[in-house]
Amino acid sequence: MDTVIKNGTIVTATDTFRGDISIKDGKIQTIAVNIDPGNAKVIDAEGRLVLPGAIDAHTHLAMPFGGTVSSDDYEAGTRAAACGGVTTVFDFALQTKGEGIIETAQRRNKICEPQACVDYAFHVAITDLTPKVLEEFQTAVDYGIPSFKVFMVYKKEGLMVDDGVLCKILKKSKETGALISVHAENPDLIDLRTEQFLKEGKTSAWYHYLSRPEFVEAEADKRAIHWAKSLNAPLYIVHLANKEGMEEVKKARDEGYEIYAETCPQYLHFTSDVYKREDGRNFVCSPPMKGQESQDALWEGIKTGDIATIATDHCPFQSYEKDWGKDDFTKIPNGCMGIENMYPYMLSEANKGKISFNKVVELCSSNPAKIFGCAPAKGTIVPGSDADIVIYDPNKDFVVSKDNMHSDVDHTIWEGTELKGYPVMTLSRGRVVFKDGEFLGEPGWGKMLKRRRK
Ligand code: URP
Ligand code: ZN
Ligand code: ZN
C-alpha cells in the first residue's frame, strides 16, 4: 500500500461506517476497521466524511457557443472540478458537419488530453445524422463511447435535431445499447415569444425566462418521453427544471420505462426571480431557472428517486460577454458556472438535514457512474475501484466567492452562498489534487475513460 486514510466515516450511496482505506497504485486496496499503515503515507480523516469523488456528467468546456467560447478550457474546468470534489468530468463533444462520432471525440481529446487534471469522458452531441454516423453507433459503443446527446433546440446555432432525427437516434440507441441525452425545450415557441418580446421592447434578462417558461420546457420533455416510450428506448433528460416535466418523468418511470432525469444545483437553489436582479444576465442559461413550484417538485423528485442524477451544465462566460445582452437578452451567451459548487452545495444541503449524505453520493457519483458505464471503477468506495476520494469536513463553514474558486471566470452566480461543511481534500486515483483550498494537481494527469453501459 502507498496511502492509508484513517479514522474517517466512509459514506457510499448505501452505507455509512467508520473505517480505514488503504490505497495502492491508484486503486482502493482494502477497507477495514483498523489498517496498520506501516511505511505508507497516512491521511487522518478523524471527524471527517470520506466520500467517492463526484462525477459531473454535464459540462461544456472550451465550447464555441453564443458568439464566443466558454471560458473554462479543459485545464481550468478540471482544475475547478478537483477543487470541488469532482473526480470525473463528462464533456460534450459537438459533432461538426460530416464528422464521424469517434472522429469528433478524438478531435476534442487531442485538446483535452494534455490539459485534463482529473479523469474525463465525452458524450458526443449528434448534430448531423448521416447514414455513416447511424452505422457508426455500434462501433462507437464498442470503442467505449456509449452515450450521445441531442439538442431539441438551438436551431440557429446549427445544433438542433428534429423529431424524425431524434426518433432515428433513439431507435438506434435501443439496438446498440447506447443512451441518448436530450436538451428538451420547444424551439418554435421560444422563437415566437422572443420575437414578440423584442417587438415590444421587452429586452431585459427577465424576458429570457419568459421566452422559455415552464410550459415551453414541459412540452419538449413530454414529447421526448413520448418518443422514447413509443420506441421502448432509454432516455436521459438533461437539466430538467420544471414541475410538469418532472411529473411526466415520474409517470413514465412508474410505468416501468427506462427514463432518467438529471437536474442541476442552480435549479434547486435559485428561482426565476434572479432574472429581476441587476445582474440577472449572469444567470442566463437554458433552460432558465423556474418558479418555486418547479423547484419544490425537483426536490420532491430527488426524494422519490425520480431525479437520477445531479450535474452542473458548467458553461461559464466572462462578465463582459454576459454584458453583450445588457439591452437585449438574446445576445447573452447562455450558460453558468457550477462545477466547483455542485458537491459542496449538495453536501451542505445534506449537512443541513434536507437529504441524507448517502443520497448525495447516489445522485452525484454512483448513479452517473452506473448510468454512463464507468462503475464500479468510479462512483463508489470498494476494493478495486479507483481511489477517487473526497474528504469532507462537516464543521467547516464556507462562503462562496469568485476569489476562492478555481475557474477561469471573473464572477460566480454562487457569490455569497453560505455552505455548512466543505471538502478539504480530493484524491484522483490516489493522488492528492486538492488540499485545504489549494489545487495540487497537474494538467495531463486525467485519463479518458472507455466506458461500457451494460
Ligand atoms: O445555457 C446553457 N445551458 N448553455 C450550455 C448549452 C446547453 O444548453 O446545455
Ligand atoms: Zn442544454
Ligand atoms: Zn448543457
Automatic annotation (TrEMBL):
- What are its GO cellular component terms? cytoplasm
For this entry, the protein name equals D-hydantoinase
Q: Gene3D superfamilies under this entry?
A: Metal-dependent hydrolases (3.20.20.140), Urease, subunit C, domain 1 (2.30.40.10)
Output the InterPro entries linked to this UniProt entry: Amidohydro-rel, Hydantoinase/dihydroPyrase, Metal-dep_hydrolase_composite, Metal_Hydrolase, Metallo-dep_Hydrolases_sf
What's the superkingdom here?
A: Bacteria
Q: Which residues carry this modification: N6-carboxylysine?
A: K149
Keywords, in A-Z order? Hydrolase, Metal-binding
